[in-house]
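We include the entry.

. . .
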Amino acid sequence: QDNILLKFPLGRPFSETFLQLPMGKGGKRKGSPGKGGGRGGGRGGGSGEKKKAKTSCEEQAPKEGERGFLVQASSCEDALRGAKDLRLWLEVEAEPEAENAVAIASATSIASGLAVELAELKEGGADSRRFLAVGMVCKQVAFLRAQDDEDVPTTLARRFFGPKAERPFVSRFADRVLPVDGSSLPKAENFATLARDVLEPHRGKPWRLVYEAFRGGWNTISRDDALKMCKDILSEDNQSVSEPEVTVLCTVSPRFVGLSAMLALDAEDLQVPFDSENATGAEE
């Protein structure tokens, strides 16, 4: 029995005697710092991954007066990929008519065409591109800027969307593409100036309004504000829900408002098919 009993010196409390006992390598004191450090490292790594994932959704509002295309998708990453698809599509399919014949005659091969493009990029950088993806306007919506004054977004959209599209735009990532003929800050006085510039050429035509608010945009320019501006400029008597000649598209976000006057296009025509077969089926 003496072999399994602990003997404590007389006059010394149990706690003091216990503290003097040797502790093994697996003791709690030695193990606790390692255990705590392991948890801390794990949590730190997790938060770093979350921060990295959010960088693709950083918002960058277009500057006032810019025009182009809003590309909407199911995620920020898909919106950026869809904007890239649209840029490549437009650069190939939307060749200016006046320069088309010259381009065909001068480009003797794909390699020479790429060489010309690379040379232009070296000279002017991103500013030399006809279209430039500038980032996210808000969550799930990217912006592709048109940098050539001759490229009118609604005119280009009519070529690649709707029942009379020359060759429908397709993308695995983009869900919708919304043209923006003009933009401004989401303030009443700025929007009034924008509306006059975009809508005045269409005065007297039957019209209807399509209002699209992204992520809190209704807190800036409301649907009633946009409708009132259309009635003041285009006349309330010409408002036509069933047979409009002009579809006014108003897109708003907390830091951006875009306006377009679409001819022979409706909001439903701006859906992006997944592949060419679906585009052909929709056209038929």
